[in-house]
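Lecture 7 notes: from sequence to structure.

We start with a single chain of 354 residues. Read the sequence below before looking at the structure.
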Amino acid sequence: MLGLMKTASRKPGLAPGTLVHVGEKKIEKVRIRTIDYDETHLEERELETIDDCLPYVDKPTVTWINIDGLHDVDVIEKIGKNFGLHPLVLEDILHTEQRPKVEDFDDYVFIITKMLSYDEAEHELKVEQFSLILGSNYVITFQERVGDVFEPVRERLRKGKGRIRKRPPDYLAYALIDAVVDHYFLVLEKIGERVESLEEDLMTNPTTETLQMIHHLKRELISMRKSVWPLRELIGALERGESRLFEEKTTVFLRDVYDHTIQVIDTVETLRDMVSGMLDVYLSSVSNRMNEVMKVLTIIATIFIPMTFIAGIYGMNFEFMPELKWHYGYHLVWVIIIAIAVVMLFYFRRKKWL
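Now the structure, written as C-alpha cells:
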C-alpha cells in the first residue's frame, strides 16, 4: 500500500492525459500477443514491438491484441497513437486503481473491470485491473501481469467451437467479460471454504489467530465488493445498447452476464454478513470464556472468605482466648473449615453455579 502511494504521488499537478504508470511493476518485459481470425482461418502470434500491430488496424478480420504489463509507458502511448485512442483513456489504463466503468467514444468502447484470483498458498485475494478497447474490427486488452482467466476463450477460438469465430469483435468482448465474471464464482467458492473452516475453529477453539483471520477475510470481501459492485452498472449500460459497437444479438448474452453479476454481488453480501456475524460470535465466545474463568475464581474466593475469617480470629495475638489452650482446638478448626467448604460447594452445585 505504501509503495502504491509513493508511485501515485507523482500524479498530482500533472496535466490531464499525462501518462504515468500508477501501480506495482509485476513483470519485467511487456508481452504482446495477437490472435487474428475469421470464420475460416486463425493466426496466433507474439509480437516483438508494438509497431508490429500496425498491419491489424485496417484488416477485415477480427484481431485480439493482448498486452501483459503496464509499466512501459512508451508501449501504451504507441498503441494509443496507432489506434487513435484518447490520452485520458491511456491515462486510465495506466492508473491501475480505477473503478470499473465503461465509456463510449463512438469509434471505440473503453471498458475497465477487475480480474480476481485467489492464491491458496498465501490465502490471499489478488485483484488485477483489466482494461478492454473494443473497435470496429479489433479488441485490445491490457493486463498488469502474465496469466489470466481467458484460456477457455482462446481454446474456443483455436478450435472454432460455437459462434465466436463467426461473430464480430463485440462477441469476443462479451466472451472476455463473461470469463472474468464466471471466475468470480471460483474465487467465491474458495473464500466460502475458508469461511466454513473458520466457523469450525470459532466453535471449537477461538484464538487470536482466528480473530486475525476474520479481519483478513472481512478486508478481502470489502475489496471484492468494491471490484464487483460497479460491474452491475457497467454491464447494465452495455445491455441497454447504448453503444453502436455492441449488436443487439450480443446484448442478449450480456443479460446473462448481468444476472451472473447480481448473483456474485448477492453471494459477496451474504459472505460479508456471515463474517461480520463470526466477529460477534468470537467476541461472545471470548466473553463467555472470561465469564467462566471469573465465575470459578469468584467461587474459590467465596469459599475462602469464611476460612480466612476463622484463621484471622485465631491469628490474633490476644493472651486470653479460651480455645487457644484447648487440646482439640486445632483439629476442631480444621473440621469447621472443611465442613464450611463442603457445604458451600454443595450449595453452589445445587444452584447450578458449578
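The chain has two domains: 2-285, 295-350. Keep this in mind for problem set 3.
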